[in-house]
Structure prediction request, 393 residues.
Amino acid sequence: MGHLSALPPPAASGHRAYRPFLAQTKIAPSPGGGAGAAPDGLLLWRAAVAIAARRSNWAASAGTIVNPIDVPLLSFSEVAERLEAFQASGARKQNYMAMYSSIFGGITTDPSAMVIPIDDHMVHRGHGVFDTAAIMDGHIYELQQHLDRFLKSAQMAKIQLPFDRSRIQSVLIQTVCASKCTQGSLRYWLSVGPGDFQLSSLGCTNPALYAIVIDSPSLPVPSGCKVVTSSIPMKSPQFAVMKNVNYLPNALTKVEGEENGGFTGIWLDDEGFVAEGSNMNVGFVTRNKELILPRFDNILSGCTAKRVLDLAGQLVDDGRLSGITTRNVSVQEGKAADEMMLIGSGILVKPVVQWDEQMVGSGKEGPIAQALFNLILEDMRSGPPSVRIAVPY
Prediction:
């Protein structure tokens, strides 16, 4: 990190003396510079935070009570400036191309303005649902199928719609159009909305729809991965089949997998059968070439997984698969399979070559996983109108 200048003296009074908070910070060039150097915006942001911390530490060491004005009181325009500085810092790792919010009733392409109210019950109570659709070659993939699940989840979560389905679909398509993104993802949420910090949603009079478009020019790669059996309890069936925003169990399962040198964790249900991954379905190819997925009764009904099951019929027709079914799969049967794979909209079809300490099949990516990856990718690029909606850029 660059070197900071001497600590400026504390302001005498009023928050205006703090207004050039970031401008006060002088940053020397990073030693060596070059490709590994942090972006100027990130150095600026880190320096501003460091100055605030040093002021706080100075006051504490002097045995004084920190004056409340040490935390600046900002106007709306100053908040906007800070948000722009944060956006310029490079702290965000994805490219956000456009956002819609029913709260401000429009679309913005400025990432620093892509915010939601803190008293939205989706934020502090988790009372919201969401879904995702891929954008490929200027088309939204399986939007209708994802909307079906989205609205069913909203009904289960007792969330009223801000407007009807046709209007929601129109808003989503217009948001992608405004983004100019031709390859990436469209994520969208329904919330009971802002209103207060109570547990009940009675004070929320405006249910909210949010949507964001994320640019992802790189395609997923069907490379083999390791998974681990998760020790994190999976969600009860009532919440597992609803795509709600309470993804802490999912996040912890993913982290646990990564901490153990894997890609993710695998959940088992109460009876010990294979359930699903952190945010993807699981599939197996048995030694007699049957494709098996766990039943969707108590897990999320994956749109990509269902489409893969439909497309896999082509592999039955040409003899590469002997059959396709959904049923209970034991851990023993899963680990003894010829192939194992993860299936989801973000990864499409990802082969699993190791589960815990046991290699799966040959320990290499299998031909069926590769074939299914190719089928779903081709479907995204040139599938029928039932799964592809052209975006009118």
Summary: The radius of gyration is 25 Å.
